[in-house]
From TrEMBL:
This is Helicase. It comes from the Bacteria. PROSITE patterns: HELICASE_ATP_BIND_1 (PS51192), HELICASE_CTER (PS51194). Residues 262-419 form the Helicase ATP-binding domain. The lineage of its organism: Bacteria, Pseudomonadati, Bacteroidota, Bacteroidia, Bacteroidales. Residues 691-887 form the Helicase C-terminal domain. The keyword Plastid does not apply. Gene3D superfamilies: Endonuclease Chain A, P-loop containing nucleotide triphosphate hydrolases, Tandem AAA-ATPase domain. Keywords: ATP-binding, Helicase, Hydrolase, Nucleotide-binding.
């Protein structure tokens, strides 16, 4: 069938039609085109076929309208000539930026420009936005009714896809006509439109080309600075000013932390503000909050989440900076009030910015308050302000965000990142990224536990260091603002600022070891006690054990028959409780003999109370009720049972008879009671306390030495409130000191004012009424005690990073002494062999140092203190290289503004050539996409190596005087090496995008399990009409896939366990599923971005710069 119509099939495309006419038309003189979308690369392919054509005229129309619409400008009728040229120039520059990077492509673009210059090609831009036609005229020199001539019209533009020259083409439909009247009509239309259009001239083309990389060859220095400017972004020229309140110093390093933190907040929706303790995180966070208010507008809502003791600190600071009216403040234990709509709090979606102080307190994802906080942080903003986007901004404040394990850091990241589709460069799937690190850490801790003699501490520290090096470089550096005092003191601009304001940071001296000896009978008692505490009998692991059973905490383990079915995880629960209480008892022994005696008597009492329950045949197991406390208050068992029932507990699930337990359980309780009675008797006879004697000796002869302690102030920490009370009483009675202030959770609020007067160097009204403060860890966070410079750790906290926070109380801005003395009572070897307190603290602290950097040794001389200055051996060791590069860009901005602006304006794909005798036949390529930045070093062997930013800068660093080399000398390998970098990037990113592939899905077992449960629920609903629930399940699946809420996964798993335990009928199961899904949907449903949008953003990178070496 003969037809005038054709599509873009391979042998019948627009290009093939042009080609056929050009080869067969005897007098092909003129080619005229009216198009809405033009690409110079399309013209280049056509040009070879039109080599003999004398006159080529192209008129471009509709893309002008599209371009200006994108720029949010409205035009009615016509556009002025310069606006038309500017619009096409913008389009041309974008085409060059997005075109393929190879020699042939660039040659085609340059040929297009040259043809206009040589007047082989005439091009005009129609100034009306109403030009939508697309037609092509192929004419002889003298077109008449008897000559040849064609007009082609339809959907195709003059581009690769429009002409059908791409491997995969769009569907196009065109018609080719040669009837004279048809051709002549279109010819006259063209001539009329041509006269109305704006011509492109030589000057226009030269200016357009000058805006692309094709007309420029920057110097190596300019390209180096271009990367720095692009990397640090607004930090370089951000000159925001903020009027500081009266009495608050304007400190430059804090000012820069605001700039860096605000940039991360905008880029990643959150970040860690993790400057070491004492550098003013509250001030920095408040300044960032004020800047956000100024950017977002007057309807901004801020939520500050704080530990209870720090409320006044936050409200006072916000009031000082004039932004208190924008904020609400909530204790970290009261987040449920926001979720449940209690009190005067706003809806969770109404907050724009969430600030979480002491964020490490939310490291555990299983806690209910973590789920509440994650819901608040991840629920989209209801009302966008001037800062666009529905994601909330989240600031996590903590000098110790790592705390214990890599898992802790992952949990905190998930407060502002989704598990999948992370915005952190180089990371797509956070759980998959963290999985090997978590496994490695767990393995390390298992091996440490087997090292009974602590012979491998140095090895464990080194391996921990290596592990956290990976975490730091791949994750932490990209979402954390953290500076140590040495960072600050060794940046010249910061040091000058501190000197000018007379701000001094004291030096933290290495820990002073205080080892106490156990002599004679006390040593024997200590050993035998430790054996009883730790040698717990176990039928498999320790069948010959002679120690405590800790039976009081193992009741559910020994339930039998129907009663046992109520506790399917009984063995796990009892094992966990036994371990916790065993560690507690050993820690109490290490804290003080006084505290240990009190714990012994308490343990004996609660054990005997449970034996009495057996005597009355009423054994109460109620985890939600503190039965031990009620018994201690003298409550009868029947009263406790009534209380439990009033609280909604069923008596049959709470009260058990002796026959519900195996006989062995009561025997174990009685054996424990006998052991505890004997221990109480022996320890009640002990009056000596070598640890206390050593402490008092040091207090009388060293701690108040003026050479060490010029202010005469002393801070003493203990984990045990009993030990705090014991030490206070001993010092008052034996040394007759009445200047001792004891502080714990129960009296902190009442003693806050006098504490500040006596120990806070920033407090206006000073007092010396108290010179010694003995405190529990209630003062380890958020207070200033820096009139003191000597700190005593009477015992070691189980949470090792608490040690850092303790020292941070005296090591703060405005500290009065130039040295900080840190005394440690190290655990005795006996205790350390059981709980590994010393080595456990060491390995956890090493993990923190390695990940975040710290100023000094905190716990042990064996610590490897890596401050991660990321130093170059050629410069001062302690200078932070990131800050150094930032300062270099800032210096250019301050001193050579014109050069800075020209470098900043360098186009994408800028390149240069170097001939310096290093790195021959290699290329550095900097690639960027909205979610990923990579630096590749492609060497002569053809391998594309991804390298860190700092390494790339070492290679690219150049002096201002260096001239660029000859680009012609590298053309034989330059394009190929850039292509290799692009291919490597795409390969890596596709692997990451395919993190949703089967391979990575297998790694994320927890997500797979939850998705499987949801799909099982869906199948269970097939037999009923539950369209609403099915739709809800589909949405929840999407939320689980993205990894938005950890609590959602936990709730689904919990429901699944409950169903398996209850084994309901099919009808009941459907009802339970509908109710549960409705509940979960109500709690966790949020709007989501589409996968398509995310994939488009990360798959194709832009070439920012490239640099080849001759």
């Amino acid at each position: 069938m003969s037809t005038k119509f054709f599509t873009n099939t391979p042998d019948n495309s627009l290009f093939e039609k042009f080609k056929g006419i050009a080869h067969n038309m005897l007098d092909f003189h003129t080619f005229q085109a009216v198009v809405g979308y033009f690409r110079s690369l399309g013209y280049f392919k056509l040009r070879e076929e039109f080599e003999q054509v004398k006159k080529i005229q192209i008129l471009v129309g509709i893309n002008i309208d599209n371009l200006f619409r994108k720029q949010s400008k409205l035009f009615f009728g016509q556009i002025d000539e310069q606006a038309v040229i500017d619009a096409y120039s913008h389009d041309f520059v974008e085409e060059v930026k997005n075109a393929g990077y190879d020699e042939q492509t660039e040659r085609g673009i340059l040929q297009f420009c040259q043809d206009i210059i040589d007047k082989k090609l005439e091009m005009r831009i129609h100034r009306s936005k109403n030009l939508h036609a697309k037609f092509y005229l192929l004419l002889p020199e003298n077109h008449n009714p008897n000559s040849d001539g064609w007009v082609i019209m339809g959907s195709s533009n003059l581009s690769d896809s429009g002409m059908g020259t791409m491997p995969s083409n769009r569907y196009e439909l065109n018609v080719a006509m040669k009837d004279y009247d048809d051709v002549e009509y279109c010819k006259q239309e063209f001539e009329q439109l041509w006269e109305q259009a704006v011509p492109l001239n030589l000057q226009d083309i030269e200016q357009m080309k000058a805006k692309t990389h094709l007309a420029q060859l920057p110097t190596p220095y300019e390209l180096y600075m271009k990367v720095l400017i692009d990397t640090f972004g607004s930090q370089v020229e951000d000159d925001f000013t903020m009027e500081m309140p009266e009495g608050v110093k304007d400190i430059r390093y804090q000012h820069d932390a605001v700039i860096q933190g605000y940039q991360m907040l905008m880029q990643h929706n959150g970040f860690f503000l993790a400057d070491v303790v004492g550098l003013g995180k509250t001030i920095v966070a408040t300044m960032i909050a004020k800047r956000f208010v100024e950017a977002n507008g007057r309807y901004t809502n801020i939520l500050v989440v704080y530990p209870p003791a720090l409320e006044k600190n936050w409200t006072d600071t916000f009031k000082l900076f004039g932004i208190k009216r924008y904020a609400q403040f909530v204790s970290n234990g009261s987040l449920n009030k926001i979720i449940e709509g209690e009190g005067n709090f706003r809806e969770k979606g109404e907050y724009d910015l969430v600030i979480v102080d002491e964020a490490h307190n939310f490291r555990g994802a299983t806690a209910g308050r973590y789920d509440d906080l994650q819901l608040i942080c991840k629920t989209p903003r209801i009302n966008e302000g001037l800062v666009k986007g529905h994601h909330k901004k989240v600031m996590l404040l903590s000098a110790t965000p790592l705390n214990n394990r890599p898992t802790d850091l992952l949990n905190l990241l998930l407060l502002f990142q989704n598990a999948r589709y992370s915005t952190i460069e180089g990371i797509q799937n956070l759980p998959v990224t963290f999985s090997p690190w978590i496994e490695e850490y767990d393995k390390l801790m298992r091996e440490r536990k087997l090292d009974k003699k602590n012979e491998r501490n140095a090895e464990f520290a080194k391996r921990t260091d290596d592990l956290y090096e990976k975490i730091r470089t791949q994750v932490i550096d990209k979402v954390t603002v953290r500076r140590t005092r040495n960072n600050i003191k060794n940046v010249p601009a910061y040091k000058k600022d501190l000197d000018d304001q007379h701000i001094v940071f004291p030096d933290i001296l290495p820990p002073n070891e205080l080892m106490y000896e156990l002599n004679g009978g006390l040593n024997d008692l200590f050993y035998s006690t430790m054996a009883i505490l730790t040698d717990t009998p176990h039928p498999e692991d320790n069948p010959t054990g002679k120690g405590l059973h800790y039976a009081r905490y193992r009741a559910v383990e020994f339930l039998q028959g129907e009663a046992r079915k109520k506790y399917p995880t009984a063995l796990h629960i009892s094992t966990m409780l036994t371990g916790i209480y065993r560690v507690h008892m050993v820690k109490r022994l290490e804290s003080s003999f006084y505290a240990f005696r009190r714990s012994l008597h308490t343990f004996l009492r609660i054990t005997e109370d449970m034996i009495k329950m057996f005597d009355q045949n009423k054994v109460i197991i109620a985890p939600d009720i503190n039965v031990k406390d009620k018994q201690a208050k003298g409550w009868e068992l029947d009263r406790i049972i009534e209380y439990a029932v009033e609280k909604g507990l069923k008596e049959e699930d709470t009260v058990f008879k002796d026959e519900d337990f195996s006989e062995r359980f009561l025997e174990m309780l009685k054996e424990d009671a006998e052991n505890l009675k004997e221990l109480c008797r022996k320890w009640d006879e002990i009056s000596e306390d070598p640890k206390l004697e050593l402490f008092i000796d040091k207090l009388e002869h060293e701690f108040f030495d003026k050479e060490i302690n010029p202010t005469g102030k002393l801070v003493i920490f203990s984990e045990s409130v009993d030990t705090v009370n014991y030490l206070t009483e001993q010092l008052q009675n034996r040394l007759h000191r009445h200047d001792i202030l004891d502080v714990c959770a129960s009296n902190r609020t009442n003693r806050q004012d006098i504490l500040r007067k006596c120990f806070d160097a920033n407090y206006a009204e000073q007092s010396d009424e108290f010179n010694i403060v003995i405190t529990s860890d209630v003062l380890a966070e958020g207070v200033n005690l820096h009139r003191a410079n000597v700190i005593i750790n009477y015992d070691s906290p189980w949470n090792a990073t608490r040690l850092m926070q303790r020292i941070g109380r005296v090591n703060r801005i405005g500290s009065v002494a130039d040295k900080i003395y840190n005394y440690m009572f190290y655990p005795s070897m006996q205790g350390n062999q059981e709980i590994h307190l010393y080595s456990n603290a060491l390995i956890k602290l090493q993990g923190f140092h390695s990940a975040f950097g710290e100023d000094a040794q905190i716990y042990s001389r064996e610590e490897i203190v890596k401050e991660f200055q990321m130093f170059n051996p050629d410069i001062q060791d302690a200078v932070d290289r990131n800050l150094k590069f930032l300062e270099e860009a800032r210096e250019l901005y301050r001193t050579h503004r014109k050069l800075y602006n020209s470098i900043k304006a360098l186009p994408m794909k800028s390149r240069t050539v170097r001939e310096i005798g290093k790195h021959p036949h290699s290329t550095i390529v900097y690639l960027s996409s909205p979610q990923k930045v990579e630096y590749y070093w492609v060497k002569a062997d053809g391998k594309a190596l991804s390298i860190p930013f700092l390494d790339a800068m070492d290679i690219m660093k150049a002096e201002m005087e260096e001239k660029p080399g000859d680009f012609a000398k590298v053309m034989d390998f330059h394009y190929e090496q850039v292509k290799l970098a692009l291919e490597s990037y795409r390969k890596v990113v596709r692997k990451v995008v395919d993190a949703e592939s089967m391979e990575n899905r297998k790694k994320d077992k927890s997500t797979n399990a939850v998705l499987s449960i949801l799909r099982t629920m869906n199948r269970a609903l097939n037999a009923v009409n539950a369209e609403k629930t099915v739709a809800q399940i589909k949405k929840l699946e999407q939320i689980v896939e993205l990894g938005v809420f950890i609590g959602l996964n936990s709730s689904i798993n919990s429901f699944n366990r409950q169903v398996k335990k209850q084994k309901p009928s099919s009808e009941d199961l459907v009802a339970q599923i509908i109710d549960k899904i409705d509940e979960l949907f109500d709690r966790y449903n949020i709007p989501l971005d589409t996968d398509e949008e995310r994939n488009e953003e990360i798959l194709e990178p832009q070439i920012v710069v490239s640099e080849s070496f001759i």
